[in-house]
Automatic annotation (TrEMBL):
Coiled coil residues, start to end: none
PANTHER family: NUCLEAR INHIBITOR OF PROTEIN PHOSPHATASE-1
CDD domains in the cross-refs: FHA
Annotated protein name in UniProt: FHA domain-containing protein
Keyword DNA damage listed: no
InterPro entries: Cell_Proc_Reg/RNA_Proc, DUF1707_SHOCT-like, FHA_dom, SMAD_FHA_dom_sf
Keyword terms, alphabetized: Phosphoprotein
Keyword Phosphoprotein found: yes
Limits of the FHA domain: 110-159
Length: 183
């Protein structure tokens, strides 16, 4: 028999907030490259099976989290860095030669490539003979890559198949780049 002063002390059940905090720290650690994929998966499994707070603490002990000021400083640096990348892109885009879009009433697409039969002939070694095609479809300009060797891009992203373009977009054919213009 036990007296009223003796009671069994079972560890308190983990709260969902504690488990969520540990899982968030593990995800952030993996995203920042502090954990390999296998270690991340194993620790996630252990976190979901943990019964005590000290088990969770052991899983995240080597994942030093940044303090408030570190987050502010690193966040500010990231914001400034992102701004400079956008600024550099805007500066380069404005300096590109203009490629004027054909008049909207044109019944045929504009073919682009090295071949003299194309509507726009680009004599550059990275441009394919028949590289790309620009056409008006449903009131939108569509740029289609025609199986070029060195690719077609819109705003720095490679076109796979076709992409909708508009005035001001940066388009690339091989290593030649232009800024689309309506006038």
């Amino acid at each position: 028999m036990t007296s009223s002063f003796e009671h069994h002390t079972y560890p308190a059940r983990l709260s969902d907030a504690e488990r969520d905090r540990a899982l968030r720290e593990l995800r952030e650690g993996a995203a920042l490259g502090r954990l390999s994929h296998d270690t991340f998966v194993r620790r996630m499994e252990l976190a979901l099976a943990a019964r005590r707070s000290d088990e969770l603490a052991a899983l995240t002990a080597d994942l030093h989290t940044e303090g408030r000021w570190s987050r502010i400083v690193f966040g500010s640096v990231a914001a400034v860095s992102g701004f400079t990348v956008r600024l550099r892109g805007a500066w380069q885009r404005e300096r590109l030669p203009k490629l004027q879009l054909p008049p909207p009433g044109s019944p045929y697409p504009l073919r682009i490539g090295r071949d003299p039969a194309n509507g726009l002939r680009l004599s550059h070694e990275t441009v394919s003979r028949v590289h790309a095609e620009l056409s008006l479809q449903g009131g939108m300009w569509v740029l289609r890559d025609l199986g070029s060797t060195n690719g077609t891009s819109v705003n720095g992203r490679r076109v796979v198949g076709a992409a909708v373009v508009q005035d001001g977009d940066q388009v690339g054919f091989g290593r030649m780049s232009f800024r689309l213009s309506t006038g």
